[in-house]
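Class, study these two lines:
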Amino acid sequence: MITIKSNREIELMKIAGNIVYRTHEYLKPFLKEGITTKELDRLAETFIRSQDAIPSFKGYGGFPGSICTSINNQVVHGIPGNRKLKNGDIISIDIGACYRGFHGDSAWTHPIGKIDEDKKYLLKHTEQALYEGIKQVRPGARVGDIGAAIEAYANKYQLGVVKELVGHGIGTNVHEDPEVPNYGQKGTGPLLKEGMVIAIEPMLNLGSPDVYILDDNWTIETDDESPSAHFEHTVAVTKDGYKILTGE
């Protein structure tokens, strides 16, 4: 069921989203060669809790970390551990925070040290694909408009669109209706209405769109081992268009 949030609820989600944004910013100076993903997880959890919030992902469906840390050919849901970041890596960090019962959710993919031109290309165009999708958000538009815009942009730059994974509604649960695919047809799917809040999150691969899940039942990797990037914002549908809740 798709829920419409009140102004007060959206204000709480804006606070949750801002905590997510500031957690991303807090982690940036630590994103250097030699740090482990477990250390990043600890830093993120400590920061989120210092803001009177709790990590949305910790224990969610049994997930052991507070954040998802996905490196290079890992698409999403990487479990923090003892792996050390290396020069030339890219890492997607997906962060959720729950404040007074409401969630914010955002992912960003970062370069570690000096990355090659292919990875720069992937990061640039996956981030832009996110904003191409966000631009479609307004009352009266359809969820399919978002996916169609992301898919068209990804196709233009020959990036693989992961179809098994989608964006989602968000509120008192971190994942709510509707699903928000990164592909589709304009004019199809649920109608966007003022007060809806959705997480838009293109996951694009430099190569094939095909993916598989590891034996840990969480980490998803590209079939052809090509690098993957993931960018996400939580977005509210407003009277005049949209408001990004996981920003400043």
Observations:
- The longest strand covers residues 90-99.
- The chain has a mean pLDDT of 98.
